[in-house]
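histidine kinase (Lachnoclostridium phytofermentans), 457 aa
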Amino acid sequence: MKRTAFVKLILCYCFAAISMFLLLNTFGVKFMENKLMDRKKDELYNEASIIVTDYATEMVEQLRVIDNFLGTRIWIVSKDGTIVADTRSNAIGINITNLDANFLEQTFSENVYFKGIFTEPMLSVVVRIPYNYSIKGYVCIHMPMDSIRSESIYYIDVVNVCYLVFLIILFLIFLIIYYITVFPVRRITIVCSEYAKGNFDEPMEIRTNDEYRELANSVKYMADELKNLDDYQKKFVANISHDFRSPLTSIRGYAEAMRDGTIPYEMQNKYLDIILFETERLTKLTTNLLSLNSFDNKGTLLDLSSFDINAAIRKTAATFEGQCTKKRIVFNLEFSAKETFVDADIDKIQQVLYNLIDNAIKFSNVDSTIKVTTEEKGSKVLISVKDHGIGIPKDSIKKIWERFYKTDSSRGKDKKGTGLGLSIAKEIITSHDENINVVSTEGVGTEFIFSLKKTDY
C-alpha cells in the first residue's frame, strides 16, 4: 500500500505524541511524587523546627491550627518516647519506642504505620527539642502519603491538560507546515503526471515565492520545451513528408506520361532533365538528413587543419557563377589581408559558406550585390555574408536555425530549399566552439556573421 508523505508525517506525529504521553505518565508521576516528597519533608521539618523554637505548654491549641492548615498530625513526645501531646488526642500516653525502637533516631521516615494509631501510611518528620545541652523531647509531624500522591497526580493532570493543548497547537502548526511544504510537492507531482500524459496545459498554481516556486517554474519550462519538441516533431514529419512527396509526385507523373506516350519522344529529354533534377534534390535532402542525424548521435567529427579562408571563399563563390548570372548578381569580396589562415575543418567550413551564399542568392533582389568579407579581430576571424534582398521577418529570426523551418517568403519565392541549410551551418560552427549570428531587416537584406580561430599559417 502506497503511503503519501502526509500519512507518514501523521504517523510520525502520532508516534511522537503517544510516546511522550506514555513517558510523561510513566516516569513523570514517579518523578513528581519524589519531588513533592522532598518538598513536603522540607516543609514539615521547617514547621517542626518552628514548633521546637517556640515550644510552650500553651501551644497545643496552636498546634491544632497548624495541624488543620497543613493537613498533618503533630505529636509532642517526651524524652523517653511517650506521646504527651497529640492534635488528635487519641495517641496521648502511648510510648513510641514500644512500637518502633528506631523511629525517634530518624529525621525522616516514609510509609510510617503505627498499628492502632494511623489508618494509612505516613510521611513523618522528627525534630529534637533541646534543653540545657540535652534533649528534652521531640516534635513529630505526620502527613498521609496518599495526600502527597494525590497532589502529584493533580499536578500530572495539569501537565497532561497543558500537553494536550500543546499537541493541538502543534497539530495546527503541522497542518500549516504541511500546506507550505508537502502540498506544493503533491501539486507538482500531479501536474507532472498530467504532463506525462501529454496534457501540457495543466496549470501549476504554486503561489509561494521560494524553492518550490523555482521547481514549479523549472518543471513548467520543461513542459513548454517538451510541448515545443512535440510540435516540432509533428512539424518535422509534415515537412519531410511534403519535401519528399513533391519531387516524387513529379517524377512519377513525368515517368507515367512518358510510358503512356503522352509526352512526345522529342520532348522527353526535357522531362528527363526535370526527373534528374528532382532526384538530385531528393539525394541532397537525404544527405542533409543523414548529416544532421550524425551530429545528433555522435557530434560533429572535425578534421582540423590550417587553411586560407579567403581562398575557400573565392572557390565557393565561383561555383555560383551560373546562378549569379541568371539574376545578374555581383559578388563583392573584401578581405582584410591577402591571406587569412584559420584553424578549422575546411570541408565543413566550405559547406557552411556554400549554404550561406546559396541562401543569399535565393533571397537577393535581381541586379543586386552580395558582399562577403573577412576581418581579423584579436584571436578570431569574422566572416560575413551579406545580401540585399527580402530580409527575414522579425518574428522569424529566432526560428531560422530550426530544422525544416522556412519563412513564408521562402516558400513563396523558392520551393527548392529543404530548410536544413542553416541548421547544418549552425551545427558545424557550434562544433568548432564558435558563434554564428544573423542581422536582418525585412525589405533591406540579411547578414550572416560567424567566427573562426585565427592561426599564423
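The first helix runs from residue 5 to 53. Residues 409-415 have pLDDT under 50 and may be disordered. ok done for today
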